[in-house]
From TrEMBL:
Keywords: Hydrolase. This is SMP-30/gluconolactonase/LRE family protein. Pfam families: SGL (PF08450). The lineage of its organism: Bacteria, Pseudomonadati, Pseudomonadota, Alphaproteobacteria, Hyphomicrobiales. The keyword Hydrolase applies.
Amino acid sequence: MRDVKMLMDGIVLGECPRWHEGRLWFSDWGAKQMIAVDMDGRHEVIDRVDALPFSFDWAPDGRQLVIAKRTLHRREENGVLKPWVDLTDLAEMGWNEIVVDARGNTYINNINFAFPGGEFKPGYVGLVTPDGQARIVAEGVAFPNGMVVTPDNKTLIVGESFATSLTAFDIAADGSLSGRRLWAKLDGGPDGIAMDAEGAIWSSAGEKCIRVKDGGEVLETIDLDRFCFAAMLGGDDGKTLFMVCNEWTGSTQNLARTGRVYWTRVEVPGAGWPGR
């Protein structure tokens, strides 16, 4: 059994962890804050983002991209977050998750219905190319959630929470998606995911974090005391697994500060390590 330690608590609704420049960055959707925390637990509020959800990643040029409501923002060299691409024509609802590949293609996804409480509709995956052009590249996705791009930029893997599966797409040279296929069927709906250097994925799975390989074999399970919303690999050598967890009541209203970031050491570093 792994030694799981707490890095930070007092979070309202943590999501979207990313390891960047020696710290774990994540969104607190409940507090509407972007937070960075170091391995000693010292944390800093980087920005305040008036949106739920909002997610972020880094482009190859080092600039941070933030998806909030129906706009993709970009942090400029002076540190100011400015609107970059208006996505109003692509979506009625706000966008959920984001991942940027090594070529600068930005994949974003949209659940396409009001959650929680709204009537389910399939969602979709969008693409914003480095020149700021946006389009839908995959439809019929059952509550799209966490995403990863393989280090060779050839495959996008998307968590479908309502289909309890990880779904893979081939990535064409222009960023288009095709060849949709089941990557892994899970016992529960995935949320935030992270790929390691052996091609396995760490996925949230209720009050667990699991390591699963292509085909669906679960290689390891880490039991937790509250819902795991997302996983990320980082640390100095890429072998620290971070798990962002929250007590989940099924509602985004009247949330208490019960969110925590846990971490443990693993044997396989993150895919493409060192990361951004």
